[in-house]
Amino acid sequence: MTDGPNLSRRRLLALSSATAGSLVLGSVGTGAVDHARENVTIESHDGTELAMTVYKPAGASADAPVPIILHSHGWGGSRTSSEGAFSAELARGFGVLSFDQRGHGESGGQAHVQNPTLEGRDVIEVLDYVEGLEWVARSRGSAGPRPTGRASDPMVFAIGGSYGGAYQLVGAFTETARRGYTRFDALAPEITWFDLSESLAPSRVVRSAWAAALYALGAPNVPEFIHRGFAYGISTGQWPSGETPGIPDLDGRFSENGPSGFVDEVELDVPVLFGQGLTDNLFNLNQAWRNFERALSNEAREQSAVIGYNGGHALPNAYPPGTPFGAELGTHEGACSVDGGFAETRLQFFEAVRDGEGDARDIVGAPYSLTTADGGRCLRLDSLDDRTTLASGIDLGVSNDGAGNLDIGWTAGLGEHTVATGEGFPGEYDPETVTAATEAAEEPEGGVAATPTGAGTPVHLELAEGPLTVGGIPELTTEVTTAGVDQRIFFGLSVGESPATARVVQNNMLPLREPEPVVRHSRSVELPGVAVDVAEGETLYLTLSAVSDMSFAHGSARTPGSVLFENLSVDVPLVD
Length: 576
Hints:
CATH architecture of the domain at 388-572: Sandwich
Shape: globular
CATH class of the domain at 388-572: Mainly Beta
């Protein structure tokens, strides 16, 4: 292994078997095919040690160079360093480098959750190391500008899911911001975020189920500001935004730790194949949609694609009831991938880019390919926001008792639509409720109250009868009047034969939050993206709930009060 010129300002560590993280030569593979595997530790820009395992395919050399794939792990995990790993990639002529991100595995430092100045620059250091490997092929070039004299750029691809998807985007963005382009030739991030703050707390409503689970995984290796932010968010249901003395600004910090922190000034100019779990209720389809539409240059977008399958960070919805998980959950083998699932699809993508014979769009066939909720069909779509209005001009009032119970106060302008609770009880117009709620909105009272998990019955607004197909990002627009502070209503699409049997499609809901009382304020609420066939005899509903078990306990906290929706419209992306 030869040190490249870019390694002159830092040292390689662990060059003997007597040191921790030592160089370990071994064979990986079966039969007569032997691939070399070695553990290496490098020093990053701030002195933090990064542990890596490098897999070199049999026959790779300076005279017969091969491209390399970077791999990294999910939150709380560690690199893959086992003998026999990455057999498919090695057999197809790709080297692989799997590394522990800072604060994980055998790497040093603390995990700052993809801070560009730390984790982002770590990726640049890993790319510097790769550039010094003589057996790694040189790049054909990217869609972005390449300065003269950069023939030494390595041909590099990237894989990984969740936190292992975020390193790809943050690393590529950080390098592009610093040098004008990235050395990555193509990326294949899965189930990751566009805006981490919005994912953990959409509309600043904490997804407490996920916040608690992720904190438990990473608590030993995070800095103090995350400890304090988590304690505040999980105990109050308020997303820490630095407004309370002594409470850190996780909202601002985490918004910078992803594409959302770059897109106003930088775009990525390389093809990307995004893998997205449609039942992912942490990083949902809306996050992949933003990554595709906002993170890429126009040219790169023409070479990129999104594949959606039923999987990802998927917790079942019990409150309100969600869609039962199918057998394919977690397999990443949705109806839209080639045989072999997403792993084979991305490998064919890398081969096409390597050989100069295509890109993600050539492999997948459409900008968006979404597996339906039942796993039986692939919707190939050009966009996710070509919407049709299914309900409009509706007035709907709901009240909550502060304990998670949501009741219909009044309805008007329904026409052919029906509003009902999950038990099938129809709503009735009650003008006294409207008047009382509007008057109360001028003089709010009360503070934040906790909501127990599992209380309440959802309210359903009938949108359309099947058969029909929905594929994309729905949207709700309305004028909102609230009585009581910190009112929270969760929205999603449901399907069922009746309100009593309706289930939230792909287990995703998003909140509307009004911190202070308002009167007829215009609001636009983006609903969770879905892909679903509504069969004959079934109905598509807009579902409203006082609680969501993704935001259990304080995450669904609200005071007693009422929320009035006037001139409500629901626009849904229908598929022919």
